[in-house]
Design brief:
Blueprint (H helix, E strand, L loop, with lengths): L1 E9 L5 E9 L5 E3 L12 H5 L6 H20 L3 H38 L8 E3 L8 H12 L9 H12 L4 E9 L4 E7 L2 E6 L16 E6 L4 E2 L11 E2 L3 H4 L3 E3 L16 H12 L8 E9 L5 E7 L4 E5 L12 H12 L14 E3 L6 E5 L5 E6 L5 H10 L2
Length: 400
């Protein structure tokens, strides 16, 4: 079977040429037929009716136009965008290389540093802000305490954390800011508890004048009332004896109602705090050496602490309410201190604040000597003749 296919194309001079090709149905090759017509005005419709297929040149032209546009679009190259992409790619490659290098080199670096580290000893530990009053034995033991928890590995953070925890738990240490590792050792930044007074352990008092015995025992407290140990680490925590008070050189508080707490803990009750406030107030006064102890055993009718000073000449100065709690009930603290200063300047009474072993009351309108009566009740025997008493009264009212 022979099939005739007519194809219409453009000639070089613009005329249409119809090419007839014969295809054999039973063969794979084809032979070109003879050119039948080459006329510019040849009608198209008769060829279409005879099976002549036209429009090939339109499809071919459209395909060539699309290919040319695509080729032109492909040839348009953005140099800046390409350069930016290359930069981002290079940055990503460098970052990946750094992460991979750190991951695989960290272990070797830590191993190298740990092998070259030096063992920390107590001699290489520095207490940066260690106060002068801190005993050398306490400083030495605190250094040993820190050094015992730190390893030779400079990358060991856990050891530093253990050292901070151990130091913060010591009764002599108020708080720990930080511990720094240096090239030669450690630097410790901490705050320490300063001894403020010696508190006598509670006991039954058989006689009001018998406030110190050889069997009495004492513990040291700081300004806040925290009990301090008798040794550096609190391992051999023993109470001080009476004969050691002179060596300690601290104000003595007697008459407390609560038992002693553990080292590093706050002493319960308001009496210790009251005694500390008065001892801190009078510690720098010229007559402070005459005070043997601050007695906090007294109470008024409203169960408030009633303070008194026990002198070395076996006298007593009744102070009254703790400093700052007088309000309008008693003379102000500054007025009481002025009275004590004037009394201690009286030559006829040998410059003693108890007028030579007597009982002096400072909580009344004027300083007064009081002696016990027949039934033990206090009896006013006379006011102390102070100079410039009117000026003292004016100062009292001005300070209310």
């Amino acid at each position: 079977m022979i099939q005739i296919v007519a194809t219409t194309v453009y000639a070089g001079d613009g005329a249409m040429i119809t090419v007839m090709r014969t295809l054999a149905a039973d063969r794979h090759d084809d032979s070109t037929g003879t050119i039948l017509a080459a006329a510019a005005d040849l009608p198209i419709s008769p060829l279409k009716d005879k099976g002549v297929f036209m429009g090939w040149f339109l499809t071919r032209k459209s395909f060539r136009s699309a290919a040319a546009a695509k080729s032109a679009k492909r040839e348009k190259w953005d140099r800046q965008r390409t350069l930016q992409g290359v930069k981002w790619l290079a940055s990503a490659v460098i970052l990946v290389a750094l992460v991979a290098g750190w991951k695989y080199g960290q272990r070797d670096l830590v191993t190298y540093a740990s092998q070259r580290g030096q063992l920390v000893s107590a001699e290489t530990v520095e207490l940066v802000n260690s106060p002068g009053w801190l005993h050398p034995d306490v400083q030495r033991d605190l250094k040993w305490l820190v050094a015992g928890h730190v390893t030779a590995d400079p990358m060991d953070v856990t050891g530093l954390e253990r050292a901070v925890a151990a130091l913060a738990g010591n009764p002599w240490v108020e708080s720990v800011s930080r511990i720094e590792r240096t090239r030669i050792g450690l630097r410790v930044h901490a705050a320490y508890r300063e001894p403020a007074a010696a508190v006598m352990l509670p006991r039954k008092r058989d006689n009001a004048d018998d406030f110190l015995r050889k069997t009495d025992r004492f513990y040291i407290v700081d300004v806040k009332g925290n009990r301090l140990p008798s040794d550096s680490l609190g391992l051999r925590d023993e109470a001080y004896r009476v004969e050691q008070l002179k060596e300690i050189g601290l104000p003595v508080i007697v008459g407390v109602s609560q038992p002693a707490p553990k080292a590093g803990e706050l002493w319960a009750g308001d009496d210790v705090q009251a005694g500390l406030s008065l001892s801190k107030l009078l510690r720098g006064e010229p007559y402070a050496g005459q005070i043997m102890a601050y007695d906090v055993a007294g109470r008024d009718r409203r169960n408030r602490v009633w303070l008194s000073l026990r002198t070395r000449s076996n006298g007593t100065v009744w102070w009254g309410l703790p400093p700052g709690q007088e309000k309008a009930i008693e003379p102000a603290t500054k007025v009481k201190m002025q009275w004590l200063t004037q009394i201690s300047a009286m030559k006829e009474h040998r410059f003693s604040i108890d007028l030579g072993g007597k009982t002096v009351a400072l909580y009344l309108e004027v300083p007064t000597v009081i002696q016990p009566g027949d039934e033990g009740d206090p009896r006013i025997t006379g006011a102390i003749p102070l100079q410039q008493r009117d000026a003292i009264h004016r100062a009292r009212y001005d300070n209310r």
